[in-house]
Design brief:
single chain, 101 residues, mainly alpha, 434 Repressor (Amino-terminal Domain), two-stranded antiparallel ribbon, 5 helices, 42% helix, elongated
């Protein structure tokens, strides 16, 4: 499964082109004050995690739904082939099962 963050596309579809514009909308429409660095991180790349309160504020500010912000590919991932089993240990020469005394 793969999840793609589509905030930049969702914002562009609503004529929001910069992090400063998004930051202003978040404050005006959703009452969320984020630092410029935080907005830049959300706007510029795929975050590892997003707080639900931030997600709700983004949806309010952009008048969208979470489906507009995430693209989820639910195609099952292929598992790598299992490594080959190790060969059994070789028997000691001379046919002995115990070491000599």
């Amino acid at each position: 499964m793969e999840i793609r963050w589509r905030l930049r596309m969702a914002a562009a579809q609503r004529e929001v082109w910069t992090g400063a514009q998004l930051r202003r909308l978040l404050a005006e429409r959703a009452g969320l004050e984020l630092s410029s660095a935080s907005v830049s991180a959300l706007f510029g790349g795929q975050p590892a995690q997003v707080k639900l309160s931030t997600l709700a504020a983004l949806c309010t500010a952009l008048q969208c739904t979470p489906d507009d912000l995430f693209e989820v590919d639910t195609t099952p991932a292929e598992r790598p082939a299992a490594p080959a089993a190790a060969p059994p240990p070789k028997a000691a020469s001379g046919g002995r099962s115990m070491p000599p005394i």
